[in-house]
Specification:
The chain is of the alpha/beta class. It has helices at about 10, 15-30, 50-60, 75-85, 100-110, 130-135, 155-160, 185-195, 225, 260-270, 275-290, 295-315, 350-360, 385-400, and strands spanning about 35, 95-100, 120-125, 140-145, 165-175, 200-205, 235-240, 250-255, 330, 365, 365, 375-380. The structure holds pyridoxal-5'-phosphate.
Length: about 400
């Protein structure tokens, strides 16, 4: 097949490593291999029963037809109420668009605003899709490496240094995938102060992990509550995937300035149309019902985090801080670099380390290289504590075999 049939824009991007890992895991399982999968990017809980029942009821009521492109009014009202109640943000249903997952909202937002020559600041470690989405929209991702000493936080100095006249967006995700990094209100204030000096920079706020936070630290105010002057250049992106364990339902949303929402609506009208009617009905119930299950889920993630951090720090060559949120750990694995496997291969990168741990240990992890800061790996805690304990035992055993 001629490679020139595929557009330059598509030839610039690569498949999502987490989706590739999921495919590889399924393949290894088919081959009968015993693999502990710590590469999972979704809650291991089931969608709560009352939400599933709402979907069933919607089907029975005949809510099986096209919805408005921007989503049903009921869902946009539920999202507006959620943004008011949980985030202190005042958006009307007309300021909101429902999308097929938060990923779709991010992609469409970039599609309608980014052109060749535009720069998009992506703090690293980053969620793997951001840079490739920017490339797919002909833009230039500007990767800003954040340091482990700063808990992988974007500092105001690093933000200031990355901004140029060509900067279009800052992509800001917190709690962050893959590091679980959280920010205090004061830290967000300091970033907002930088942004105020650069009116050309818009903010793509990816709040998808907002409810998965550990410890007693108060939830910070939303950056738009801290600095309302940023509202006209901020797009708030969120969804029901992580909070309500609804990854397969594919409901996300964006709230923001009228011109961006209108352009996203137009793009969606000529591409995907509205999201699934049944999923939208389920999302209305999710957002309009008290999430009584959530504190228990978060406590479970936190216990797993504590177990995993303790076990990883007992393994020579690894170092792992306890993240403030989301459901991933991002341990440093620099102590494995330069060591030799029993087969005589030298581990030269976190990619090699992750391949070795899969082949010798039967543990699936994702290499930090894919997330923009090496040598680290991403380990998911969205799986049972027994799996986490067994995974860490296998990692320890495989590491002990390195010369
Ligand atoms: C940071 C971040 N944003 C967005 C998404 C996508 O969410 P959705 O499943 O709603 O498309 C993910 C999923 O892994 C994520 O980690």
């Amino acid at each position: 097949m001629s490679s020139t049939r595929i557009s330059a824009r598509m030839r610039r991007i690569k498949p999502s490593p987490s989706s590739a890992a999921a495919d590889r895991f399924a393949e290894l399982r088919r081959q009968g291999k015993d693999i502990i999968n710590l590469a999972i990017g979704e809650p291991d809980f089931d969608t709560p029963a009352h939400i599933r029942q709402a979907a069933g009821a919607a089907i029975e009521r005949g809510e099986t037809r096209y919805t408005p492109v921007a989503g049903t009014l009921a869902l946009r009202q539920a999202i507006a109420a959620k943004l008011q109640r949980e985030n202190g943000l005042d958006y009307a249903p007309r300021d909101i668009i429902v999308t097929c997952g938060a990923k779709h909202a991010l992609f469409n937002a970039l599609s309608v605003t980014v052109e060749a020559g535009h720069e998009v600041i992506v703090p690293a470690p980053f969620w793997v899709s951001y840079p490739d989405m920017v490339l797919a929209c002909d833009g230039t991702p500007v990767i800003v490496a954040c340091r482990e000493e700063d808990d992988f936080r974007l500092t105001p100095q690093a933000l200031e240094a990355a901004i140029t006249p060509a900067t279009r967006w800052l992509v800001f995700n917190s709690p962050t995938n893959p590091t679980g990094t959280t920010y205090t209100t004061a830290q967000l204030r300091a970033l907002a102060d930088v942004l105020l000096r650069h009116p050309q920079v818009m903010v793509l706020a990816d709040d998808i992990y907002e409810h998965i936070r550990f410890g007693d630290a108060p939830k910070p105010q939303h950056v738009l509550v801290i600095e309302p002057a940023l509202r006209e250049r901020t797009l708030v992106v969120n969804g029901v995937s992580k909070t309500y364990a609804m990854t397969g339902w594919r409901i996300g949303y964006a709230a923001g300035p009228a011109d961006i929402i209108a352009a996203m609506d137009m793009l969606q009208s000529q591409s995907t149309s509205g999201a699934s009617s049944v999923s939208q009905a389920a999302a209305v119930t999710a957002l309009n019902t008290e999430a009584g299950f959530l504190p228990g889920w978060v406590a479970t993630y936190e216990q797993r985090r504590d177990t995993a951090v303790r076990l990883l720090n007992q393994i020579p060559g690894l170092r792992c801080a306890a993240p403030g949120g989301a459901f991933y750990l991002y341990p440093w694995c620099g102590g494995l670099i330069g060591r030799r496997t029993p087969q005589g291969k030298v581990i030269e990168s976190d990619v090699d380390a992750v391949i070795y741990l899969l082949e010798a240990g039967g543990v699936m992890l994702l290499a930090g290289t894919a997330y923009g800061v090496a040598p680290y790996f991403r380990m998911s805690i969205a799986t049972g504590v027994e799996q986490i304990e067994e995974g860490c035992r296998r990692i320890a055993q495989a590491v002990a075999q390195l010369a």
